[in-house]
Amino acid sequence: MWSKSAARLYLCERMCPLYAFRVLILMAERRTKMLKSLMISSVCLTFGTAFAAETAGNVIEINENVAPEVIENGLFPKSSSASDCAEAAKAGFTCGQIVPRKVFSLPAGISFASGSARLSEPAKKLLASFGPILKRNEASGNTVVFVGHTDITGSKPLNRRLSQQRAESVRQYFIHNFDISPAFMGAVGIGSEQLKDSSNPASAVNRRVEISTKQSR
Length: 217
What we know:
The protein is 47% helix and 13% strand. It is α/β, with parallel strands linked by helices. It folds into two domains: 1-56, no CATH class; 57-215, CATH 3.30.1330.60. A five-stranded mixed sheet has the order 1-2-5-3-4, sandwiched between helices. Mean pLDDT is 78; it is low at 16-26 and 32-56.
């Protein structure tokens, strides 16, 4: 489980455009801890909407039809080779363009009983295909992050705690079943702060755990 400060930094990275976030964090690190905290909050407030638009379409719903290569390429995109660049040029693209990472969403509706953080057997079956992929990428220079979400039903403290517990359940599943290093994976719970369906905040689609990666610092 991450510390509160590490979790807060990760959430801001999720909600803010990467470049602006890193620049402002570097500025904040030269000041006091209090000023740094205020700067992070300000950055998230300013750029949260832009980041949501930027990542639209990069979320893949986890089901039995998601191929292993889709998972691996989505979580651990590889650098382009010379031949890849040549093919990209023929297609009108510039080699070196950023390959977007994907976010894989595990529906909580089929993964957890109401109010529970215990993984269901169908959820474990869906997650099993991720295990070997995460294991062979432990030394990739990335960190895997599990983010728990809830709908708006219930109090904010309760939802945040439940979403954290669900994210941690997914993390523990990989630790115990695939012998993956705990240091390679983090779990964060953010309650109902990032609704998937904001037009229906109590909808079951908002109850989910998302799997993503970020480059290790």
